[in-house]
Amino acid sequence: MKKNSYNFKSEVKEVLNLMINSLYSNKEIFIRELISNASDAIDKFKFLSLSNPNTYNIDNDLLQIKIIIDKKNKLLKIIDNGIGMNKKDLIENLGTIAKSGTKKFLQSLNEKEKTNNNLIGNFGVGFYSSFIVSEKVSVYTKLANEKKNKGFLWESNGTGEYYITQIKKKTRGTKVVLHLKDKESIFLEKWNIENIINKYSDHISIPIKIKKKDKLNNKYIWKQINKAKSIWTLDKKNITKEKYIEFYKYLSKDNNDPLLWTHNKVEGNYEYINLLYIPSKLPWDLWNKEHKHGLKLYVKRVYIMDDAEQFLPNYLRFIKGIIDSNDLPLNVSREILQNNEITKTLKKSITKKILNMLLKLSINDNKKYNIFWKQFGLIMKESPAEDFDNKDLILKLLRFSSIKTKSKKQTLSLEEYFKNIQPNQEKIYFITSDNYITASNSPHLEIFKKNNIDVLLLYDRIDEWMMSYLHDFKGIPFQSINKIDDSINKMVSQKKSNIENKQEIDMFIKKVKEILKDKVKNVTISNYLTKTPVIVRTDSKDMSTQMIKLFSAAGQKVPDIKYIFEINPNHSLIKKLQNIKDEKKVENYIKILLDEALLIEKGTLENVHEFSERLNNILEEKI
């Protein structure tokens, strides 16, 4: 048969280069990856044979994974009788990494990271780990519904090319043959292969067998290595921590240990088992639109599909795990799941279980919870908009930075804020900004610092959107200090009656209004400033600055917002301005002060050149 040559995609070449030249610290991981692939192939065939028995017939075959060691020829063979592949599948699965963003991820790695074996499995490249120990890999395969004895052979030495040849193959499934390097003979020892499988793949529900010579009868037999019991069906009292961790790594393709997990058997209106894991690290491609997420779905122990996202809200898309239902039909599709009442009930229950697990962690192990928030806090901030039913639970899970924490780290809970609330404080105050430095140094905070009132510092892009869905905590409303609010007047010690020369400042305010005209919504005396001469604030009914930025970044039209210009009457600069007789000079100073206030609030100006020119004129006068 004709052998066709193909070039690997550039991302695959980079991965192969990593596998062959850099990842040495844990070579045995390739066995776990190949066994995992074989198990998935059998699961898929088992599902198809049950849902479409006329096309996919098991024919009383025992579904299993076989391992053959050929020491003489230095070959390690892993064989499954699963779904198999055709030519198109080989090109798509073994010639391309399907996840977009992989190239960018590879380019971002530094040299130290490139020698870290934790990269294996992180972005769907488990098969390529074979080349760590192999000088050549051959894959013999036949698709399950192929009527003729038609199969394909895929071959590569892990460099720039691979070859595909049409071959004769009677049985469905895939045989992976590793032509091991001379220095990798340890992987031709049965005891070593058995130890590796017991370590990484004991939980796999498909029997894994190795060809072994029976010395008593002087013939070859197949010895089963693994227990072949689905871990989630076992009593959790009999499952060790190590077994839970290894199952997570098999399931998620993540070589890091999970942060925590929960294993539950639920009996009631609906019967199901779930085994749910929270990773310890954010998946590198989680923000990618093509990132697949969801639970692995089984129905009555039969594998149905990967990435069943219908059982989790989007903000919990980082959760890994399985759900095994006794009530869903075997022929369930993604479309059926979407509108199924059982699915909705299970989703509600699973979501509540995860949130309660996180709440318990935050109470019992705050240090560990802070690790979780550092990794997944930004995603959890999506939850108030998505999940009103669990609002009270979600509020307890949120973490913030504030004036009093004096740190960029978001570690303050609303419970802690509530405990330290001032006796006359009517609201929970927050400020939104582009970054922590801008937020923590905002003039809006001056009166709060003076009166020992804590303010939440919100500087993530999503924060303004999140706060629009948060109305109160324990009956106390949230209030943005970027906006006008009467509650602040009630508690601050500085009152309008304390203003020196009230009549003069009223005349000055009138003059400022005449100068600025329609550039601002209003000009008022500020009761909040202690160090800063002026500030701008949004009217309580208007869209906030950060919300405008959020909508603009999304390409949506936003209304023109005019700010309220607030003046600190007791500031020395304002007092000096009141005594200047030159009207042009006063106008110039007022417009500079407005631009400064807008720059602090917005981070930008519509006419930077005009601001610069005014500033230069003043500097020229003083020099």
Q: Gist?
A:
The chain is an alpha+beta fold. It folds into four domains: 3-229, Heat Shock Protein 90, CATH 3.30.565; 232-370, Ribosomal Protein S5, domain 2 (2-Layer Sandwich); 399-491, 3-Layer(aba) Sandwich (Rossmann fold); 496-622, Heat shock protein 90, C-terminal domain (Four Helix Bundle (Hemerythrin (Met), subunit A)), CATH 1.20.120.790.
What can you tell me about this protein's structure?
It is a single chain. This protein is an alpha+beta fold and 623 residues long. Helix content is 35%, strand content 20%. The chain has a 9-stranded mixed β-sheet, covered by helices on one side. It has a 5-stranded mixed β-sheet with strand order 10-11-14-12-13, with helices on both faces. A 5-stranded mixed β-sheet has the order 15-17-16-19-18. The longest helix has 24 residues, at 341-364. The radius of gyration is 33 Å and the shape is elongated.
Cross-sheet strand order for the largest sheet: 1-6-5-4-7-3-2-8-9
The third-level CATH topology of the largest domain is: Heat Shock Protein 90
User: Can you identify the CATH class of the largest domain?
Assistant: Alpha Beta
Task: Determine the fraction of residues in helical runs and give it as a percent range.
Answer: 25-40%
Beta content comes to: 15-25%
Flag low-confidence runs: 98-103, 114-124
The end-to-end distance, rounded to whole angstroms, is 89 Å
- Could you describe the largest sheet, including whether it forms a barrel? 9 strands, mixed
Give the averaged pLDDT, no decimals.
86
How many structural domains does the protein architecture include?
A: 4
Query: Would you count the extended β strands for me?
Result: 22
The total of helices stands at: 21
- CATH superfamily label of the largest domain: Histidine kinase-like ATPase, C-terminal domain
What is the CATH architecture descriptor of the largest domain? 2-Layer Sandwich
